[in-house]
Design brief:
The chain has a six-stranded mixed beta sheet, with helices on both faces. It contains 23 helices and 26 strands. With 747 residues, it is an alpha/beta fold. The protein has three domains: 19-47 and 110-370, TIM Barrel (Alpha-Beta Barrel), CATH 3.20.20; 391-572, 3-Layer(aba) Sandwich (Rossmann fold), CATH 3.40.50; 632-746, Immunoglobulin-like. The structure holds alpha-D-glucopyranose (GLC). Alpha-D-glucopyranose binds at residues 81, 110, 154, 207, 286-287, 498.
Amino acid sequence: MLKHCVALLIALLFSNGSTYAQLSDQEMTRRADSLIAQMTVEEKLGQLNQVAGDLSNFKRVAGILPVQFQQIREGKIGSMLMVYGADLTRKAQEAAMQSRLKIPVLFGFDVIHGYRTTFPIPLAESCAWDVELAERTARMAATEAAAAGIHWTFAPMVDIARDPRWGRVIEGAGEDPYLGSLIAAARVRGFQGADLSADNTILACVKHFVAYGAAEGGRDYNTVDVSERTLREIYFPPFKAAIDAGAATLMTSFNEISGTPATLSRFLMTDVLRGEWNFKGMVVSDWESINESRVHGAAKTNDDAAVLAINAGVDMDMEGELYVNLAKEVRAGKVSDAVLNQAVRRVLLAKFKLGLFDDPFRYCNAEREKALVLNPAHRALAREAAQKSIVLLKNDKNMLPLRKDLKTLAVIGGLAESKRDMLGEWEMVGRPEDAVSVLDGIKKQVSDKTTVIYSKGYEATRGKESLSKAGFVEAIKAAKKSDAVVVVVGETADMTGEAHSRASLDLPGVQEDLIKELHTLNKPMVVVLTNGRPLSIVWTAEKVPAIVEAWHLGIEAGNAIADVLFGDVNPSGKLTMTFPRSVGQIPIYYNHKNTGRPINPQNPNDRYKSRYIDLDNTPLYPFGYGLSYSSFEYKNLRVSQREFRGSESVTITVDVTNNSTVAGEEVVQLYVRDDVASVTRPVKELKGFKKLRIGGGETKQAVFTISAKDLMFLDRAFKPTMEAGTFTVFVGGNSAQTLDEKLEYLP
Ligand code: GLC
């Protein structure tokens, strides 16, 4: 009796017209369950079914097939992807309102680094070491996407990547779990905002769970076999950070891990996600990855695969169309009502939180779409993000910045005039015509007295590396006539991204040959890299006086690159992935173990050490590396106390002096090594960073505070622990050049 009175009281409480989205989780769950109680098995399975729209020309116009409209009316489609636009999504919702239970459709899309306003690829943006920027660009992308009828982005991709052969390094934040975790959480906050029921916030989807970036050979979709320790110390942290930041959904990864396809892994999708991390959100498989578990050899039939996946904890089936046909297996008891209802509940709760049950059309506003998509404020942010993502790799004799009033400036390279490639490989609805090429950006900024001569030198054609040197003659001629040469080289967008792994990290095709020929002219020369992964540009790094890492920077690439080349912006980016000297060094990353036979830098030829007989162990450019037009000097590293115990914290201070006359920003990095522990620890681990703006001739202090909780690690039983002993503290402008001090933690 009391229970009914309470239920009645709750009903009365909420009869004041509060919306679904503002209900407590408990009340939302109650309402979801009352809806589930009305659903047939087929309708439940329909909610777990996500299908792509008409992909025949989706990058230009989104479409939904007639049969799909009918399936929506029959309650067989719970979510769609690759469908966008206020008008089209409205039509789909109208069809949903004709279904028996009128459950709205959930629209997902790959808003990876911008919707129509394309920002720098995430790997580039991570080089800004600017967590607040990561949140801002995600927020702006969500605003545009939501205005276009999208409820859910399949981002942030938080896969730690230590292998640049893997094309998908473009989507993440590099090799470090600490920085990757901060950026993951920031992007979740940006996409989801403070209120998911607002009409400019969308569900985030942290992906790809897990260790997708550890694919053997750097070959996409390949086998992953890492220890549980490496999983927990390196690959898990950004996912945990994203979930702690409130990520509403998570996506499985294509790869198997230690013998089980991630999509079928109960250890991952239930024990870790739900048991250890208390994740309440919805899990979606990656594209047909449930079906692919048959190909992995982990399931005999599609039905077997689907039963294994839903019982492992995967709630929604992306594009596999397996869950939607699982009624027989459900009725045969292979999927319990509890498991089925739990998956449906998570999907419905996502829709409740977005406010779709209050107003299925709240995201379908064509006027808002027109006003918000690709607007000037978004373009301005795209330029700021691009500027901050640029990493100055070399600038001998202050070759840069270039004067704007040079008499003649040669711009060489097929990539210099490319707009498409500046958008990166996840451009989706980003349009080349929206982008500013490097050539355009330079032309806009030089004086009207300057003549810019452009010559391709090499073809930057999608789909194949140009091996023709036919353009060299004209390029050399152009360079001969010029006062300075800007050579733009790197990768076309389709050499990066999904299913675009490379076995080589060299500049593609004939690009390095062109640089060598131009170099013989002894002209002031700058190489601008537009690429999506670390490249082993050893010859260029040695011979060319100025090198700018400019990645694929999005629609404002050309303007931002010109801002840096001509000095309107002082570059401040720092690499978040190690640049190898050779692909033969992979995996190479800064937070490596010491081994029992580390190379002796003072005696690198000492034979019986962990070394190559044909190459130096060190990277071409280390993690955290990046120069500036300023010149920063680190001095006077000091600690507030040498010994600490319990919860005491230690203050670490360093003076950073800008010895130039140019104000600039410096990312001061703090690393720590646990010298001896019950489990071997990396030689360095990033534990903090500060981005300081320091005026010419000025000295500023970077101050860090650390305590035992910052230094904990997983003991042999994977339990967080802190052990007595000495620690080495490193502070510097990159992971290789640091000042260091000792600390001791006492029991
Ligand atoms: C792709 C990608 C995933 C993406 C999904 C939808 O295969 O692996 O990251 O979100 O399919 O496009």
